[in-house]
Amino acid sequence: MIFAYPLILLMALHTLFVMLGYYSIPNLDSAMHFAGGISLGIFIFGLLGKAIRKGWCPDPGRALLLVLIVSLVTTGAVFWEIYEWLSDTYLGTHFQLTLDDTVKDLVLGLAGGIVCAWMVYISRAYTTRFGTAGIDRKPLESGSR
After folding, report:
1. Cβ-proximal residues to 129 (8 Å cutoff; 6+ apart), any chain
2. How far is the C-alpha of 70 from the C-alpha of 62, rounded, in Å?
């Protein structure tokens, strides 16, 4: 489950930054939300690949896979903001400074998911992980447009 490593690293960094109080460093929170979107996207891509190879679910195809990555990363970002709200409300932390900060965090998580989906789209990772059924990009033949 090598695809889980980026997410594990990000969670370890988050825990370390909370313990050391590093979230007071300007823009660190923004960078972590963007990196969180990318890390969660990699995890989702790997998890879906494993599920398809094991026969647990059908291959969604490249287009739907990209939509799934972005959608599930966005859902993860929403749940992360709920975690921050619960932490602020019941533990007295100050993760959510303002409504603008919360929306910015959601947008950065979404942007990270889009970047991950874009990386999957332009790379050969999809073909390597899911096979080539129905998704081969055929090169243009000379003279045809």
Report:
1. 45, 46, 49, 52, 53
2. 13
Long-range contacts of range 20-28, CB-CB < 8 Å, 24 or more positions apart? 23/95
pLDDT digits (tens, 9 = 90+) for 10-48: 999 989 988 888 878 888 889 999 999 999 999 999 898
Residue 96 one-letter amino acid: Q
Question: pTM (2 decimals)?
Answer: 0.81
pLDDT digits (tens, 9 = 90+) for 59-88: 888 889 999 999 999 999 999 999 999 999
State the DSSP string of 107-142: HHHHHHHHHHHHHHHHSSHHHHHH-STTT--PPPPT
| Domain coordinates in residue numbering, the chain | 2-130
Length of the chain: 145
Radius of gyration of the chain, Cα coordinates, nearest whole angstrom: 18
